Amino acid sequence: MAMTALVTGASAGLGAELARQLAADGFRLVLVARDRARLEALAASLAVPCEVLPADLTVPDDLQRVAARLADPARPVDVLVSNAGFGIAAELADSDPADERRLLELLAWAPLRLSQAALPGMLVRGRGGILTVASLAGLLPTGSYAAAKAHAIALSRSIAAQHRADGIRATALLPGFVRTEFHERMGLRRTGVPAIAWADAADVAREGLAGLRRGRAVVVSDWRYRLVRPVLPLVPDRMLGRWTMRRLDPR
Q1: Per-residue pLDDT, 247
Q2: Which of 7, 69, 134, 203 could covalently link to 81 via disulfide, CB atoms 3.0 to 4.6 Å apart?
Q3: Could you tell me which of 16, 2, 13 has the C-alpha nearest to residue 52?
Q4: Number of domains in the chain
Q5: Contacts for 222 with CB less than 8 Å, ≥ 6 apart
Q6: Closest Cα to residue 198, out of 221, 178, 182?
Q7: CATH number (domain holding residue 213)
């Protein structure tokens, strides 16, 4: 029997790549994002049944619709991929409070709410997977984006620890810089980051899904970032924050 995966933020970038790789593995898909046209184009390009579910996860009614789809016992979802996200091209002292609230809702509250909706059915079936796209930034002192991603990492680790014996796997995927349109949407340019630092979205998606299959609670994607991770606790926060925030310059 074919399994079903629900992917948020599926209209572009890493979310679209995760959807493509899940489709290649034979998963039926529920594609979630704000842009219906992009979702429909992606669905048409995949050789598996796809359900298009347009939703803005920062809108309570939309989030509840996606949660209800995950909880529907008549249409079980075997894998939840929480990938939707955005960033703010301003430091906390200068940013719009409304933008900060949307950021926290999308990066922290939405993955929690959707995991909460998916877990009961997975527990009944005795199997399931939850892949949460966090970020290496979640290990760094680099503002509200990093704080929200730290929440996502902790949430995923908690689910993995609490429900491994129940047949449920949970993985936090921690990419560094990835070649997608994410930074352009923030209004940032890449000139402060050397070309070698940018990872390919297909490689990042592949490592995340492989980590989920293996039951790894945390996956740092790309060998370059795996080399850096052990060094991070040794560097003072003030140096990490200053260096990281200067890598990408506002337009």
Answers
A1: 47
A2: 7
A3: 16
A4: 1
A5: 175, 176, 199, 203, 204, 207
A6: 178
A7: 3.40.50.720
For residue 162, what are the domain limits? Answer: 4-250
Q: Give the angle subtended at the CA of 172 by the CAs of 168 and 177, to the nearest 5°.
A: 155
**Is 225 a residue of the active site?**
no
Q: What is the DSSP string of 190-218?
A: STTS-GGGPBPHHHHHHHHHHHHHHT-SE
Active-site option among 27, 145, 182, 225: 145
pLDDT at 251: 27
Element (H, E) at 184: helix 182-186
pLDDT at 108: 96
Nearest to 55 by CA among 104, 117, 6: 6
Give the global pTM. Answer: 0.87
Instruction: Give the separation between CA 204 and CA 220, rounded to whole angstroms.
Output: 9
Mean pLDDT, consecutive 10-residue segments, the chain of 251 residues?
Answer: 94 95 98 97 97 98 98 98 89 88 96 98 98 90 88 97 98 80 51 61 94 96 72 60 49 27
- In the chain, how many H helices and how many E strands? 10, 9
pLDDT on residue 33: 97
